[in-house]
Amino acid sequence: MLLTSYLLFIGLHVSEGCILVKSSQTLFITANAGGSVLLPCYCTDLHTKPETFSWQKNSGNKWEEISSESGQYRDRVQLVNGHSPGNLSLLISHLTEEDGGDYHCYADKSGYLFVSLDVKACSLENSGIPLSISAHTGGSVLLPCYCTDPHSKPERFTWNKLKKTRNTWEEISSESGQYRDRVQLVNGHSPGNLSLLMSHLTEEDGGWYKCDLGGCEHIVIKFTVTVSPQSLPFVPFALVTVIFLHIIVAVVYHTKRTKDPARVHYSTADGDAVVCLG
Ligand SMILES: *[C@@H]1O[C@H](CO)[C@@H](O)[C@H](O)[C@H]1NC(C)=O
Ligand SMILES: *[C@@H]1O[C@H](CO)[C@@H](O)[C@H](O)[C@H]1NC(C)=O
C-alpha cells in the first residue's frame, strides 16, 4: 500500500517534469559589451531534470537554437546549473552588441520564459560627473574617458571642445586646426579606453572638453592651462635679473652717497683709497 502510493507519487512527479519559474513572463536584462551575462531560467523544483529543454534566440521572426558548437555563440555559451539539474541558466560571455535581442528558455511542456537582453556598447565610468583638470603650457595631458568594461568598444564617439564665442561643441581632430598632430587616442591596448592625450599645450587649449558617445553617455572636463615657469624664455629672465641687480647697486650707491656725499670709497690693486670730490 505504502509502496504503491510511493510509486504513484514518483510517477506523478516524473510526468509533471520541469515547471519553469516565471513561465511566460519576460525578464529585461542589461549587460555591457565585452562582459558576460547570466540568463536565468530554472524549474520550480531545482532537483527536477527536464526531459527536453532548449535556449533559443529570435532572429528575424524565427527562433533559432543557441549552440556553443557553431555560429554566433560558438565557445561563448555554457549552461551553469550550479549542481542543480533544474537550473537551466545560460551564461553568455564575450558579449557583443549583436547578442542583444529576445531569448527564450523552453522546458518540457511547461511553457517559455522570455528574456529581453540589451547589450550596451559602452557605459562610461562617471558619466555626467564634470571633471576638473589642469596642466602647464608646453606639457601634455591625458583627458580621461573610459567604458566601465575595458573590453567594450563603442561604435562611435567623439572628443569635442566648447567654442565659447558660438557656444557650440566642435569636434577635435588631429588632422587639422588647432590640434593638428598634438592629439591622439590611447586605446591601443584596451578598446574601451577613450582617453585623449594632448601634447605641446598652449594657453588656448584651456576650456571645456567633452567625450561624447551620443545619448546620455558623455564626460565633460574643465581643462585649465597654467603658464609654466620653465616655459618662460631664458633671455627675458636673465634680463630681468640684470635689471634687478642694477637697481640694488643703484640703491646701495644712493644710500652711501646720502650718508657721505663728498666721498666715494673704492678699491684699487694697491689697497684702499679715498677720493675727495670737493
Ligand atoms: C543557477 O546557477 C547559477 C550558476 O551557478 C547560479 O548563479 C544561480 O543562482 C542558480 N539559480 C538558482 C535558482 O539556483
Ligand atoms: C587609459 O590609457 C592610458 C594610457 O595608456 C592610461 O594611462 C590609463 O590609465 C588608461 N585608463 C584606464 C581606465 O585604463
From TrEMBL:
Principal cellular location given in the protein's record: membrane
GO cellular component, one term: external side of plasma membrane
Example GO biological process: cell surface receptor signaling pathway
Cell compartments where the protein resides: Cell membrane
UniProt signal peptide: 1-17
Keyword Protease: no
Keyword Signal assigned: yes
Entries under Gene3D superfamilies matching the protein: Immunoglobulins
UniProt cross-references to SUPFAM superfamilies, sorted A to Z: Immunoglobulin (SSF48726)
Domain Ig-like: 34-116, 138-228
Annotated membrane topology: Single-pass type I membrane protein
Transmembrane regions listed in the UniProt entry: 234-253
Keywords assigned by UniProt, alphabetized: Cell membrane, Disulfide bond, Glycoprotein, Immunoglobulin domain, Membrane, Receptor, Signal, Transmembrane, Transmembrane helix
Name under which the protein is recorded: Ig-like domain-containing protein
